[in-house]
Design a protein that fits this description.
Rossmann fold; single chain; 223 residues; 8 helices; alpha/beta
Length: 223
């Protein structure tokens, strides 16, 4: 089956860099019109007024891909309440708000794909508890939303990427840490952004019509 997203409208939350940017490019290559919500493109996802103004320009949402997140590598005693709230607001609260208002523009057959993390599925080698907590929350958010939206034939699924070669990874892991981790992964390498995009395309295609509420690990076998 050829995957063709012509006449589909996609919103990528966090589409200006890393995995989100690659998703934007690949969905455009498959024919979709893609809009990105990110600070680099003039929308602070933590600013509800800016989000509302952006969504006023959108009539229909076929695919919503929630990628955006921030990460800090600190132990709990080094995390103050302001930083905790910053991470939870960006990684979880903003996704709730944007998703809620995008659902109003969705029809039968629409798809939502949320990005959790291997950290939310299991734990992180370096990230703080605020990051892992937010990513675990995304999994619960996905499963409950899949239950609510299933009767409307809107599929909601979640992917859990492992460490991927992005700027965020470079800022959170040293080269020695990356090399050591690579040697312990069954596939013996860190993920590329291309590795993380394929499952998202699949989950938005008709190949996955009966997949709903799934949490898909994309981690090279780190079980």
């Amino acid at each position: 089956m050829k995957i063709d997203f012509t006449n589909k409208n996609t919103i990528v939350v966090g589409g200006s860099a890393g995995i989100g940017l690659k998703i934007k490019e690949e969905f455009e290559n498959l024919g979709s019109k893609v809009l990105s919500i990110s600070r680099k493109e003039g929308v602070d996802i933590n600013n509800t007024d800016q989000v509302d103004e952006f969504l006023l320009k959108v009539d229909k949402v076929d695919f919503l891909i929630n990628v955006a997140s921030i990460n800090y590598t600190k132990k709990i005693q080094e995390i103050d309440l302001n930083e905790w709230q910053e991470v939870i607001n960006t990684n979880l609260n903003s996704i709730f708000y944007i998703t809620k208002h995008c659902i109003e523009k969705m029809e039968s057959g629409s798809r939502i794909v949320n990005f959790s993390s291997i950290a939310g599925r299991n734990r992180s080698l370096v990230s703080g508890v605020h990051y892992t907590t937010s990513k675990a929350g995304i999994i619960g958010f996905t499963r409950q939303l899949a239950y609510e939206l299933g009767p409307k034939n809107i599929n909601v699924n979640c992917v859990c990427p492992s460490q991927t070669l992005t700027n965020m990874l470079q800022n959170s892991m040293t080269s020695d840490q990356q090399e050591k981790l690579s040697s312990e992964i069954p596939l013996r390498r860190l993920a590329t952004v291309e590795d993380q995009v394929g499952p998202v395309i699949f989950l938005c295609s008709e190949l996955s019509n009966y997949i709903n509420g799934a949490v898909i690990d994309v981690n090279g076998g780190q079980i």
